[in-house]
Amino acid sequence: MLRNYPPLPFMALPHGTSYAQPTQPALEHVALDSPASDAMTDLTRVAAVIVLAGDPVDEAHRRMIQRGVRLLLVVDQDRKVMGVITADDVMGEGPVQMAVQQGIHRDEVLVRDVMSPCASLQVLNYEQVRTAKVGHIVTTLKHAGRQHVLVVDQNGKTGIRLRGIFSTTQIFRQLGINVQTIGMANTFAEIEAQLAHG
């Protein structure tokens, strides 16, 4: 019976082979009146970029560079979200100040020392996001003075879960606005000016 199915040939795995990762086909362009979900990184379709709370801050920075993101989810050994760490957290003054306070070298500072824990995070509800427009998210980020916002939904099996992430960098890219991250007030003023003339 198996004679109709000859074995497939093997090959050697080349050194330095990368691996496939899920990707969300992000829309190239959105408008302020596009559905907000068009600008959200949906974690049901894209693997979250994570780091452990006990990892060194430099490891978090390396992952951000490697994956082209400015925010990592901080998780525990059971993959439960403990908080987030951003590029500002790892490249700002926080790691240096923590090293001085603890009397250690900067490269010994851990993610848990500079991350934003869950208790300090405010999130959006996916039910509201589903009916919102990109403009609502831009206004929300501007009002909060933030570069990222997390979105949660209700998962019948496990309760509340993290569903998505909005990033100003991604939204502005999709709006066709070339903005350097120089400070949120300046960035949003620049965006409003570009949208008014565009």
Explain this structure:
The protein is α/β, with parallel strands linked by helices. The protein has a single domain, classed as CBS-domain, CATH 3.10.580.10. Helix content is 34%, strand content 19%. It has helices spanning 57-67, 87-91, 94-102, 111-114, 126-131, 134-144, 168-175, 184-197; strands at residues 41-42, 50-52, 71-75, 81-86, 116-117, 123-125, 148-155, 159-167. The strands form two sheets. It has a four-stranded mixed sheet with strand order 1-8-7-6. The protein has a four-stranded mixed sheet with strand order 2-3-4-5. A hairpin with a 3-residue loop joins strand 7 (148-155) and strand 8 (159-167). The longest helix is centred in the C-terminal third of the chain and has 14 residues, at 184-197.
The overall number of domains is 1
Low-confidence stretches: none
CATH architecture, by name, is Roll
Main beta-sheet annotation: 4 strands, mixed
- What string gives the helices and strands in order? EEHEEHHHEEHHEEHH
Topology:
Layout: E1 41-42, E2 50-52, H1 57-67, E3 71-75, E4 81-86, H2 87-91, H3 94-102, H4 111-114, E5 116-117, E6 123-125, H5 126-131, H6 134-144, E7 148-155, E8 159-167, H7 168-175, H8 184-197
Parallel strand pairs: 2-3, 6-7
Antiparallel strand pairs: 1-8, 3-4, 4-5, 7-8
Can you tag this structure with a few keywords?
single chain, 198 residues, alpha/beta, CBS-domain, 4-stranded mixed β-sheet
In short:
The protein is an alpha/beta fold. It has eight helices and eight strands.
